[in-house]
Design brief:
single chain, 271 residues, mainly alpha, 12 helices, globular
């Protein structure tokens, strides 16, 4: 059990789990738009997420001079370097429009991590901003990039998918914020810090309900299957919201909650 725990911890700490979630969401974007044969963006999203998330997490650790995960960190740095090489490989396979979009969202990641102005905090520490940057970045990588790469013309359906994905990510981040409400610095002004835990849960339920309502506005998608799977994932996240509290272990959100998109994708693959 000790060995298994170490493997799972490394899997989470190295951002492989969240990267697999990104891969799953890109794949589902392709599925719901009926697109086949495009894998470069999915792998670019996977390796880019490993690099981006590790950069965000461990840049902060270096700034705080923490050394308790020094041995593991060396392995994670090596993994991140390999992921960066893979990211470059798939990046150069993209169209120039996709490259430009990728640079835009990479810029958001840098803004989130690095202070660009002297004596100023990075965007990660701006009051109430973190959740919106995360949502926009995930929409860009898992919706905008795949559709730009496949030259899907702008439509109401694309806008709906982007808004639904933002609501999905926003709801997931709310669970993280509830679990971390006591550990997060008060100046971050996360949603549960501002309005409380129970109102945050109600907000999450409302956003998930709105996500499902938007499904009925699609112009080219009147099938039961997409709605069923979105109902499945929204229901699962609602359960996580219901049971979320500040006493939950780190695995509650970082492993189990982030497994929801992966499970959703695997169900689609199997059935």
């Amino acid at each position: 059990m000790v060995v298994l725990k170490k493997i799972i911890d490394f899997y989470i700490n190295s951002s492989l789990h969240v990267a697999l979630s990104a891969f799953a969401l890109v794949s589902m974007t392709y599925f719901f738009f009926g697109i086949d044969g495009y894998s470069s963006i999915a792998f670019f999203a996977f390796f880019g997420t490993v690099v981006g998330y590790n950069f965000v997490k461990y840049d902060a650790i270096t700034r705080l001079n923490k050394t308790e995960i020094k041995k593991e960190l060396k392995t994670i740095v090596f993994l991140s370097f390999l992921s960066l090489l893979a990211c470059f490989y798939f990046f150069f396979q993209l169209s120039w429009e996709s490259k430009l979009s990728a640079f835009t969202f990479f810029g958001l990641t840098l803004l989130y991590t690095l202070p660009f102005f002297p004596n100023k905090q990075n965007a990660r520490n701006w009051k109430g901003v973190k959740i919106y940057i995360i949502g926009i970045t995930w929409v860009g990588v898992t919706v905008i990039l795949p559709l730009v790469e496949t030259e899907i013309p702008f439509s109401i359906d694309m806008l709906l998918m982007a808004f639904q994905r933002f609501l999905l990510v926003f709801s997931i981040v709310l669970v993280f914020d509830i679990v971390d409400v006591k550990r997060d610095d008060l100046h971050l002004q996360t949603v549960p810090q501002i309005i409380g835990v129970e109102p945050t849960k109600k907000l999450g339920y409302l956003l998930l309900f709105l996500l499902l309502l938007l499904e009925f506005l699609y112009t080219n998608n009147h099938h039961f299957l997409p709605f069923f799977f979105k109902l499945l994932v929204c229901g699962t996240i609602a359960v996580f919201l219901f049971f979320a509290n500040e006493n939950r272990s780190r695995y509650y959100a970082s492993f189990w909650l982030e497994s929801v998109p992966i499970l959703w994708w695997l169900v689609l693959v199997v059935f």
